[in-house]
Amino acid sequence: MPQITVDYSGRLAGDFDRPGFARALHEAVVEIAAAKPPACKTQFRRTEDTVVGPDAEGHAVVHVTLGLLAGRTDETKVRLTEAVLELLRQYAKPGDGLALHASAEVRDLDPSYRKFETE
């Protein structure tokens, strides 16, 4: 915990500092949601096709989902999503007239969530 997934348009790949974003996001999650730094995990999933409204050209999408153990207040979740959007403004800089559509959500992990680690 937390489990972070970032879906992003392939057109944005060269204009999105993913490692920098992940490091900054992990710091924000530690500060805002009291996560432990080694527990922060982010996966990036590049998507090749993006359509916004009737247009398949000129748009890029980034959506960040943060899964946290239950117990965070709605206020904490809102602060975290706002922090994510601010970080996306800093780390995702679309070029070539590309319009960026960025969004984020925080959800509670299901009570069945379990994990293991190997060393």
TrEMBL record:
GO terms, molecular function: isomerase activity
Presence of the UniProt keyword Phosphoprotein in the record: no
Keywords carried by this UniProt record: Isomerase
Annotated coiled-coil segments of the chain: none
Domain of life of the native organism: Bacteria
UniProt xrefs under InterPro entries: 5-COMe_2-OHmuconate_Isoase, Tautomerase/MIF_sf
Pfam families: CHMI
CDD domains: CHMI (cd00580)
PANTHER family: 4-HYDROXYPHENYLACETATE CATABOLISM PROTEIN
Name by which UniProt lists this protein: Isomerase
